[in-house]
Amino acid sequence: MAEKRDYYEVLGVPRDADAATIKKAYRTLAKKYHPDLNPGNKEAEDKFKEASEAYAVLSDPDKRAKYDQFGSAAFDGAAGGGAGGFDFSQMGDIFGDIFNDTDIFSNLFGGGSRRGSSSGNTATRGQDVRLSVHITFQESFTGTTKNVEAMVREECPDCHGTGAKPGTQPETCPRCGGRGRIVYTQRSIMGMIQNVTDCPDCHGTGKIVRDKCPKCYGTGYISRKKTLQVRIPAGIDNGQFVRLSGEGEPGKNGGPRGDILVQVIVDESREFTRDGYDLYTTNPIPYATAVLGGPIIVNTVDGQVEYEVKPGTEPGTRVRLRGKGMPSIRNSAMRGDQYMTLTIEVPKRLSSEAKEALMEYDRLQSGKERTFKKRGFFGNK
User: Mind listing the pLDDT tens digit for each residue in 64-120?
Assistant: First the structure.
């Protein structure tokens, strides 16, 4: 088995760090490597587990004292099946103390002595609901309002969320005494260790429903489709989210509802390419304008504007239109820029007068007479 890194080194704190410093260091690492923010990233998940294990030890005065004396060997063989024998069964409480997010943590370290959130009958925030909505590129510039439909759970109108048949009430769970948790003790090389888990009879609610409500089947909730209005701010980019606070799934035991997260899908533009708040376009200009200079009409997200081409402009020249990009979603007064790449239009057909003029220009430039076949380069007689 590979030797574990020093816990102080993992968190990046000195050995005499106080509890606040250790907690702050762990919070930073946990946010950085959280699996929800790094989906499918095994390396990030391993670092997240490593930091959590280090914090579980160093945040506990007794465990920290043992670690300072014996190192990680003090915990080898401990119950729970965590990394390297470490017991992750209590990490739900630790992570909840840091981020109030025990469900995510417990799901990650499933298989220890704790199942689910192990939150007992304490208040727990409801889950978020994810939706998506399509808008046009122009709507992403101006901002817009859209209606979305979501299926969410609402309190059952018959049992008012208790799950019990009308006229009856849930009973206090006799196994856990209404606490929602049970404690069991097991022996390890460190002595007797107490583990806490959700009560298997009431599933952590502290209540037993004998006669279930026929409308919600004892769940206390019914699913309902509702239509919500989403205000999409100007400048939003493809894939970004708009949050509808408190419109998600209901919480447990009086906890707040989750949110609805609406992902905005922006249709591609045929004319503009977006990079951050900047826009990029390709604008063809007549050959004569490139040589002599002059005004051209340019399309922007605001509408058409006039731009003065400099004489002698070469193909591929990029020019900048300040403040003609997308607005910032945080401050609509701030905008990106529009960058135009100028290309030269080569006419495929010329009138006889234009052809003669071009031949005269060529003679003046080269000093040579140029003759053309009856059906020449430009395809006309």
Answer: 888 887 777 776 544 333 334 444 444 444 444 554 443 434 334 333 333 334 455
Mean pLDDT over all residues of the chain?
82
For 207-220, the pLDDT digits (tens) are 899 999 999 988 88
Question: Helix (H, G, I), strand (E, B), or coil: what is residue 340?
Answer: strand
CA-CA distance, 244 to 48, in Å (whole number)? 29
Residues 210, 256, 106, 183: is their CA dihedral positive or negative?
Answer: negative
CA distance linking residue 236 with residue 97, whole number of Å: 34
Checking if the pLDDT of 45 tops 50, the result is yes
Which residues, at least 6 apart from 100, have a Cβ–Cβ distance to it below 8 Å? 125
In angstroms, the CA 315 to CA 313 distance is 7
User: CA-to-CA distance for 178 and 199, rounded, in angstroms?
Assistant: 9
The DSSP symbol for 301 reads T
**Do 241 and 335 touch, CB atoms closer than 8 A?**
no
Rounded Cα distance between 370 and 242, Å, is: 65
The string over 227-242, giving b where at least 16 C-beta atoms fall within 10 Å of a residue's C-beta and e elsewhere, is eeebebbbbbeeebeb
**Residue 159, amino acid:** C
- Distance, CA of 71 to CA of 74 (rounded, Å): 6
- Two tokens, residue 138: 């122009």
303/62 Cα distance (integer angstroms): 69
Q: Which residues contact 22 (CB under 8 A, 6 or more apart)?
A: 11, 13, 55, 58, 59
Residue 370: which pLDDT band, with cuts at 50, 70 and 90?
A: low
Q: What domains can be seen in the chain, in order of their start residue?
A: 7-108 (1.10.287.110), 129-170+209-266 (2.60.260.20), 273-345 (2.60.260.20), 347-381 (no CATH)
Strand 171-172 and strand 207-208: pairing? antiparallel
**Interaxial angle between packed helices 91-99 and 19-33, expressed in degrees from 0 to 180 and rounded to the nearest 10:** 90
What are the two backbone dihedrals, phi and then psi, of residue 325, each rounded to the nearest 5 degrees? -95, -155
